[in-house]
Design brief:
The chain is α/β, with parallel strands linked by helices. 11% of the residues lie in helices and 25% in strands. It is built from four helices and eleven strands, in the order ββαβββαβαβαββββ. The protein has a nine-stranded mixed sheet, with helices on one face. Strands 2-3 form a two-stranded antiparallel sheet. The mean pLDDT is 97.
């Protein structure tokens, strides 16, 4: 059974949202200093690399990470390849979802150079959200840092998804993943106050 690691590597200099907390890892306590172990220190935004958005990220009354049901982030998932699209619309899913599809991942291939933050992405149209809900979708994943245009302040897709109880997984690495059905595991950390959380996301081929 093949496993695809669809998580962005985290390293000093990994691109983050402009103006957000940059990722930084160092060793303030080394084996030479302690006599036994290396102990690292980590500073980062909760939206660095591959991560989930909790509703509190864009809604002050929304749930925090600790309150999200874990079963959303593990289970069957459908990868849909929309490479070349300018927007994810109703046409993007026409005839491709079956009733009861709970997790949908969109492969846009729009973030080609992962060493820099993208200039443009492929946003999700708010018109497609009710159609996703009708099919039973509770989680969408994307290979981009957001589901809305990068300059958006209204965050229409974020809010539309929230209104339909569809949760968000962003920053996936899908370059080598063919369209099809998989088993997704992308569990967030138990951050009690978190507005988001990094995840180690994988897709397993289904036998």
């Amino acid at each position: 059974m093949k496993i695809y690691d669809i998580s962005m590597p985290l390293y000093n200099g990994v691109p983050n949202w402009p103006g957000d907390t940059p990722y930084a890892f160092d060793l303030p306590w080394t084996k030479e200093q302690s006599g036994s172990v290396n102990v690292g220190r980590l500073e980062m935004s909760t939206h660095t690399g591959t991560h989930i958005d909790a509703p509190f990220h864009f809604d002050n009354e929304g749930k925090r990470v600790i309150d999200l049901p874990l079963d959303l982030y593990t289970g069957p998932a459908l990868v849909i390849d929309v490479t070349g699209s300018k927007e994810i619309t109703a046409e993007s899913i026409d005839g491709r979802l079956t009733n009861g599809t709970k997790r949908v991942i969109f492969k846009t291939s729009c973030w080609s150079d992962r060493t820099t933050f993208p200039d443009q992405i492929v946003p999700i149209s708010s018109e497609v959200v009710p159609l996703l809900k009708v099919q039973g979708v509770g989680l969408i994943g994307v290979d981009m840092p957001s589901v809305d245009p990068l300059d958006s302040k209204e965050l229409q897709a974020h809010h539309a998804l929230h209104q339909h109880n569809i949760h968000i997984l962003e920053g996936l690495l899908l370059d080598d993943v063919p369209e099809g059905e998989y088993e997704l595991i992308a569990l967030p950390l138990p951050l009690q106050e978190g507005d988001g959380s990094p995840v180690r996301a994988i897709l397993k081929e289904r036998s």
